[in-house]
Every structure is written in C-alpha cells, then in structure tokens.
Design brief:
Helix 4 (117-145) packs antiparallel against helix 5 (152-170), helix 5 (152-170) runs antiparallel to helix 6 (213-220) and helix 5 (152-170) runs parallel beside helix 8. It contains nine helices and four strands; from the N terminus they run αββααααββαααα. A hairpin with a 2-residue loop joins strand 1 and strand 2 (48-49). By secondary structure, the protein is mostly helical. The chain is globular, with a radius of gyration of 21 Å.
C-alpha cells in the first residue's frame, strides 16, 4: 500500500519570485532595526512605542511575501501576469514601509493622519496602496485558484487560504473614516475607545476595547495557515493511516478553512461591538463554542466518510 510522506508534497515548478524574496529580506532587516529602535528610542506615537508599527508591518510582510513566493513557485507553468502583480505588490509594499518609517523618524503617526498637507498626501498614498495590494493579490489568487497544485487537498487549501486572505485584506477598509475623536485624524482601529489604549504584549491589540487590526491580521495570514495545515496532514500520514485517504484530507481542509473563516467573522463582530479579544462576553463565548462544535463535527464526518474504504490516493 503506497504511503504519503514529505515527498508527496507539491514541489516547486518555477523559480521563487526574486523581488518578493528581496522584499522579505529587507523587511527582516527592518524588523531587527525596529526592535532596536524600540529599545533605544523612548518616543511614543499614537499611544505605542514609535518603532512598534514598523516592526509589526515588517514581520507581517516577511510572512506574506515568503508564502506568496512559495505558492507562486508551485504553479506548473510560469505566468507573466502573476509575476508582474507580485512585483506590483513589492513596489507598493516598499512605498508603504518608506512612509511608515519616514513618519516614525518625524515623530508623526502614518495612518489616518491629515494634520498637515504633507501628512494628508502621505495618507492618501497609503490608502491607494491598500487598494493596489488587494487588487494585485486578487489577480494572483485567481491565477493560482484555476491551477491544480498537488492533490485536491493541497489545491483546495491554497484556494481557500487565498480567498480568506482577500477577505482579511478587505477588512482593513473598516478602519479609515471611523470617528477618532482627534482633530485631523480621519480613521481609527479601536472601537469604543480612542486609539492608544493599553495593548497586549507583542501585538499591541487593545485590552480594553475592540480592535479592528485583529480581523485584518488574522484574515490576511490564512495564506500561510491553511496550506500549512494541508501539508501537516500529509506529514502525519505515517502516524495516522486514515489520512492516506484523499477524501479525508479534503474534508479536513474544507472543515479547517470553514472554521478559520468563522473565527474571522467572530473576531470581526467582537471588535465592531467594542469588545477586547481577551475579555469575551457570554455571547462571544457561545458563538465560539458553536464554531468549535461545527469544526469537530466536520472533522468527525470527514473521517467517518472514509470508514470501510480501502481506496488510497497519493499526492
């Protein structure tokens, strides 16, 4: 009986997109610089350490760029359009990071800032970049989604992961235009309190109010989480033989993706109600329990569907 293993995972069929790799490397360096900045620079911008935002954006861009470059390399045939869109993402990301770092050097907030004409121009540019990043990612997602990569479980993990990522990117549009309570600031990420309230360690997410950065971050990183889950299933085959059955892995991937999307909806709803992530009320806990029940039921159904079958499909 054939056994799936790490060799069954899809292999790179094309070179990794170099601009994305260079962008990831540059952001890795920036993350180190920003962490050092937090240690030596005691300035505070919008309630957080001045260099905190560049560090968070740098780490996020590293994860996003590496995952996107890897997924693109799995496509059997290179796509010039996809390569162009990836380069557009890099250019847009570089501009955004330059603005964020530049504003930190000036001691000004980068997002939602209309304090001066110059600050307003920078914010308009950043707002435009958000749209460009979304559209370029959407083009790449469509190109990858119409291509079979690996077996059905891997293919669907990529499709669903990219779809959730697009939703996460789009959720960033909930922040611009929100009432900030501060003159010349045209948006906010905190709901129920001003930006700059006490935040969680590492993430900075509000501990006293709702925070729209949570669904934005959680959603856009489905690009890494869902395909990695599908890969983990393959690696677990030697220990869990039923995972050799393709329909089980497909079912588990779909169930995990549905659970991820449901949690994304839950944390979005929680944030919009002005509720901090770490202090859920009974309604939020009930919804979370329902999601967990649904995921467990879906997983059990996926496994039960293979009971009695001897058919094993390898990647």
């Amino acid at each position: 009986m054939p056994v799936l293993s790490v060799d069954s995972l899809p292999r790179r069929r094309a070179p990794l997109h170099r601009p994305l790799l260079y962008f990831a490397a540059a952001n890795a360096v920036l993350a180190v610089v920003a962490v050092i900045g937090m240690l030596v620079d005691d300035r505070v911008v919008a309630g957080s350490a001045a260099w905190f935002k560049p560090a968070k954006f740098a780490i996020s861009f590293v994860l996003y760029s590496i995952a996107l470059a890897w997924l693109m390399s799995l496509r059997p045939k290179a796509s010039r359009l996809m390569g162009w869109m990836a380069t557009v993402i890099v250019v847009a990301g570089v501009i955004e990071q330059l603005i964020i770092v530049g504003q930190v050097v000036r001691g000004m907030r980068s997002h939602f800032n209309m304090t001066t004409v110059f600050d307003g121009v920078l914010w308009v540019i950043m707002g435009s970049i958000i749209i460009v990043l979304f559209l370029a990612t959407m083009v790449i997602a469509v190109q990858l989604s119409v291509t079979r990569i690996g077996d059905a479980a891997i293919t669907w993990s990529i499709r669903l992961g990219l779809a959730i990522t697009l939703v996460g990117l789009a959720l960033g549009n909930l922040m611009p235009g929100r009432e900030s309570g501060v003159d010349d600031i045209v948006g906010a990420h905190t709901v129920g309190a001003p930006d700059g309230t006490p935040g969680m360690p590492l993430t900075g997410w509000s501990t006293t109010a709702g925070d729209l950065r949570i669904p934005h971050f959680f959603g856009m990183h489905a690009l890494q989480v869902v395909p990695l889950f599908a890969a983990l299933l393959v690696l677990l085959v030697p220990r869990i033989p039923i995972l050799r059955v393709l329909r089980v892995r497909v079912g588990l991937v779909v169930t995990a993706s549905a659970g991820y999307a449901a949690v994304l909806a839950l944390v979005t709803w929680q944030a919009l109600r002005g509720q901090p992530l770490i202090h859920p009320d009974q309604t939020t806990l009930t919804a979370a329990a329902a999601i967990l029940t649904g995921v467990v039921a879906g997983a059990l159904f996926s496994v039960a569907s293979a009971i009695g079958t001897r058919k094993v499909v390898t990647a």
